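Notebook, bench 3.
Goal today: get a predicted structure for Ribonuclease 3 from Novipirellula herctigrandis so we can plan the truncation constructs. The sequence was checked against the plasmid map this morning, with no discrepancies at the termini. Length recorded as 247 residues. Pasting the sequence as submitted so the record is complete.
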Amino acid sequence: MDDIDGVDGGDQASKLAQCQKIIDYWFKDESILLSALTHASGASHRLDSNERLEFLGDAVLGLTVCQWLYEEYPEYNEGDLTKIKSYVVSRRACGKIACSLGLDRCLIVGRGVTRNRSFPKSLVSDVFESVVAAVYLDGGSEVICDRLKIWLADEVRIAVESQGASNFKSVLQQYAQRELSSTPVYRLVKEIGPDHRKAFLIEAVIGDQQFTAAWGNNKKDAEQRAASNALAHLHEQPIPYPEEDRD
């Protein structure tokens, strides 16, 4: 194995081994992984760096996440799926995952970069995408898909819950069907006020579980708030819309 810009062969071999152990995949062609881990500053030629693999990895990551979300969340519309996907494949998310896996410790860089106390977030994010591409090329789509579903699970969950701020009903339905094998229903508990200014108290019900009812100025808003209350209860969090609170 040739040395690259001051990085000796032994160090390269160590980083290749460390990376393969981290991602639980052993390459048939280690030269692909070597390229994936090599930053332009540590490459003898720019085409030997991970930039081309980063380009491919971005596409592989996007397609894999899109198919995953499409199949896993059939109740979400195109706008919801786009918001979740954008969060999951963002530089912030990719950099976070790369660091949590320890891929930043496997980077092969030039001496100028190693003087820094930590790598730039963009650099760490890039190596995640290049490793994704390397696994895809060496092992195929099924191999990288299986690993991405493990690596990205928390980010998908966070994205689903955060985008659900405007669609708690969809989030609750997905959770109830996945975890409780049931579908939520919404029951009108009370309505008050004149026709032009009614308020509705609605509760979410899943199986034999009734959750804290919530008020809304229309049934749609009341159902969303009731769903939010149910999600809070299921995740052992404070109820955001106590029954006694009314707009």
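The chain has two domains: 9-162, 168-234. The chain has a mean pLDDT of 85.
Flagging this for group meeting.
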